[in-house]
Amino acid sequence: MEQLKAKAEHLTEHVKEYVETYFKLGVIKITDKATGFAAVSIMGILVCFLSLCILFFLGIGAALWLGEMMNNLKAGYFIVAGFYILITVILIASRESFLFPLVRNFIIKKVYE
Questions:
Q1: How much is the pLDDT for 16?
Q2: Cα(28)–Cα(75) distance, integer angstroms
Q3: Residues of the chain with pLDDT under 70
Q4: What Cα–Cα distance (Å) separates residue 61 from each residue in 52, 57, 84?
């Protein structure tokens, strides 16, 4: 009987250690995923910001260049604005079939890495 009690206590200790270790492993996995997601998010925000700055200055440059070519600066700005409106309309029209699946697949890949 004493032997059985000792084995039960020993088993209880091992189960307790197993549960604590499993819990710690879960916390580490969640922390790893969260830090990875945060790093990707911060990098994505920085890339988007820099891309917008580049696009902004390229747009101004293109507008000035087109305006000088046409001898009308306003026309250059309107042509570049029309180009941006066209790209925006195309992105909005294709968001269901192109943009959403692209973003969704990227997020799923990052979660399961």
A1: 83
A2: 58
A3: 1, 4, 8
A4: 14, 6, 14
